[in-house]
Design brief:
The protein is an alpha+beta fold and 197 residues long. It contains 4 helices and 11 strands; from the N terminus they run E-H-E-E-H-E-E-E-E-E-E-H-E-E-H.
Length: 197
């Protein structure tokens, strides 16, 4: 699994959200009712965060890399699947016990990138991240489309351009592995603590 860990403040979420909304080959997979999902070209992450009442905002999404092709619709009793050929028209998940926050595509579908955002009004800046299965299952014939590999690299280049890599907890002895986006970076530089995980 490939990870792209980030420290984000609210203003950074806007920056990231604008970039994702402008990415032509990407779509948010959004709830459209009970176990119903639909692909949307644009989505407002800050609106989802604002709907939460606590000081720690948490949202997660599945992002479909459109050129990777149809999405799998997993069978009710097994990992066998049919295809969701038009995610823009929406679909209903048929697996019982499905997560109501994000759609489920099995353990390793490489055409979808996971995004988890954590925002805290005060205290430590938590770690948000992108996660992608990549080519973990290529050996069994479930490798990533070349265009999705290119998109993942494009996502990493955006983070390198927009953010400053710092060590976990901003510990000077650590490896620079977390992308601190501009506002979060400024807050950390001004003495705000940042999370270990």
């Amino acid at each position: 699994m490939a990870w792209l860990p980030m420290y984000l403040a609210q203003q950074d979420v806007e920056l990231l959200n604008n970039w994702l909304n402008k990415a032509e080959e990407l779509a948010f997979l959004i709830s459209n009712g009970n176990r119903k999902w639909v692909a949307k070209k644009e989505h407002g992450i800050s609106t989802d965060l604002a709907s939460q009442k606590s000081g720690l905002g948490y949202v997660e999404y599945k992002l479909w890399h459109v050129p990777s092709g149809p999405l799998p619709l997993l069978d009710l009793y097994s990992e066998a699947s049919t295809q969701i050929t038009d995610p823009w028209a929406g679909w209903t998940e048929i697996r019982p016990g499905a997560n109501t926050a994000i759609p489920y595509f099995g353990a390793g579908y490489p055409g979808v990138i996971h995004l988890e955002i954590k925002i805290a009004d005060e205290g430590e800046v938590p770690i948000s991240n992108f996660g992608w299965i990549g080519n973990h299952y290529r050996i069994i014939g479930n490798g990533a489309d070349k265009t999705t590999e290119k998109f993942w690299n494009k996502l990493k280049r955006m983070a390198k351009m927009e953010a400053t890599q710092i060590p976990r907890c901003n510990d000077s002895r650590g490896k620079k592995e977390i992308y601190a986006f501009p506002t979060a970076y400024q807050e950390i530089e001004n003495g705000r603590l940042c999370s270990l995980n």
